[in-house]
Structures are given as C-alpha cells and as structure tokens.
Design a protein that fits this description.
CATH superfamily: Vaccinia Virus protein VP39
Structural class: alpha/beta
Bound molecules: S-adenosylmethionine
Largest sheet: 7 strands, mixed
Radius of gyration: 17 Å
CATH topology: Rossmann fold
Helix content: 25-40%
Number of strands: 7
Number of domains: 1
C-alpha cells in the first residue's frame, strides 16, 4: 500500500512523508476492521480507498492554498472524509469532525486516538443544531463537506459555521448539473459568494468539482432552519 499511496498522491502533485503514509495505512486497516461491524463505507479495495477516499479528500488542498494553523470543520464526515485525511496531511490544522450518526463518531474517536492526532475532535449531532451554538457558529476559518447533500441544502448546513472572511470548500463529484444555479439564491441569503470553482481531472477517469464560497457577511440568525427543513425546502 505504501507504493500505491506514493504513486496516487504524486499523480496529483502531493508528497507524503513516511509518517503520513503509515498513518493512512493504519487508517485503512481500522476502516476495514470496523466496517465489519458498522456501516462506514461501501468501498473496501485498497486501490479504491486510496483513490476514492484518501486522494479525493486531499483534493481539498487544490482549492484551499496554505492552511497552516487554521481551524476546519468537516460537516457529515462519516468515516472521516475528508477531515481526517486533511489533518494527516496538514498537522497544524485544528480540526472538528461532525456527524449525526453516533457509531461513526465512536469510530472517529478510536481512529484519531490510534493515529495519535492532536487538536482534533469528533462531535455527534446535526449541523442544523450545532450551527446555532455560540462556540461553533461563525467560528471556523474553513468548513468542508463531501457527499452529504446537494449544494442548495449543504450551504445551509455549512455556511453558518464559517467566520466572516472564511471559506466553505465543497467537494463535489464529476457533474454539477443544475446544482450551482439552484444554490445561488441561498448562498446570497446565507452571507456568502462563490469565489472559485476548480475542475480537477486525473487521466480522464477521475473528475471532481471543488466549489469555494467566501463568507462576506454574517448569516442571519434564522439559519440554519430546524432539522429536516433545509432538505425539505431548500433555500
Ligand atoms: N463525508 C463522508 C464521505 O465523503 O465519505 C460521509 C458521507 S455520508 C454519504 C453522509 C454523512 O453525513 C453520514 O455519515 C451522515 O450521518 C452525515 N449527515 C447527514 N446529514 C447530516 C446533518 N444534517 N448533520 C450532520 N451530519 C449529517
């Protein structure tokens, strides 16, 4: 797996040191082990995990630039994607992982302890609730999410956590279809602007869109609306 990691990450312009490779290998082993007991991922093959989870998560850095000593929240992190991969690759990031499934949070706590990661926490609950807590609302330099909801929904779950001047970086799949157009109104209501869209492609097989939004004003207090409403009636 060591060689596979080196090759995959180098193709995308990333260099991993030995410590990072060992951490990713341990992450893989724990993921597969816990996946027998709780549903963490449908992807188990080494090569697939390296490309579709690890490298895909790392593509965040294609949009973020330098992140030294910034704070980051990963909303709907599941088994830690992208948040745990980002912490491994950028150890000075201060990371918070949020997920509404308690069993996944148990896994994340075991994982981050085993990897001896510091300045990383895993919290249980819904973004619609945590987004109203004073110590989380508008507190993060960076917020990210992958595979949680379409943009028109995701923005309401994520943008309230971003401090003014900070960024929400959404990792999206190969096709955006109408997602951007549908999300436009909500982005403005929530106090943000799209500032970058990066299309990234690896050898015609692996295409991703990374959407960057910058927070330019406070999010009005009524957002996020109560749990379930963003999904039922997107802004
Ligand atoms: N981000 C991970 C990834 O890319 O592999 C997990 C994706 S999984 C499809 C979606 C995750 O988002 C689930 O673990 C689910 O529990 C979590 N989730 C969905 N809605 C949420 C909400 N409103 N607040 C917090 N977590 C949420």
């Amino acid at each position: 797996m060591d060689k596979l990691l080196t090759e995959a990450f180098e193709q995308a312009g990333f260099t991993l040191n030995d410590k990072q490779k060992n951490q990713l290998i341990t992450y893989y082993q724990l993921l597969i082990q816990w996946n027998q007991r709780i549903n963490l991922t449908a992807i188990e093959e080494e090569q697939d995990v390296v490309y579709k989870h690890f490298l895909d998560s790392a593509l965040f850095f294609k949009a973020s630039g330098k992140v030294d000593h910034l704070s980051l929240l990963d909303v709907g992190t599941g088994a830690g994607f992208p948040g745990v991969v980002l912490k491994i690759m950028a150890p000075t990031l201060s990371v918070c992982l949020l997920d509404s499934l308690n069993k996944r949070v148990d896994f994340l706590q075991k994982l981050t302890a085993t990897l001896q990661l510091e300045d990383i926490s895993a919290i249980h609950g819904r973004a619609e609730e945590w987004g109203h807590k004073a110590t989380y609302r508008q507190q993060f330099d960076l917020v990210t999410a992958r595979a949680v909801a379409r943009l028109s929904v995701l923005n309401e779950l994520c943008l309230p956590f971003v401090k003014v001047g900070g960024r929400f970086i959404a990792l999206k799949g190969p096709e955006l279809n109408n997602e951007l157009a549908d999300a436009e109104r909500g982005i403005a209501l929530l106090g943000a602007q799209i500032t970058d869209i990066i299309e990234w492609e690896l050898a015609d097989t692996f295409k991703r869109n990374i959407i960057v939004m910058t927070k330019t004003a406070n999010t009005p207090q009524k957002y996020p609306r109560r749990a379930g409403t963003p999904q039922k009636t997107p802004l």
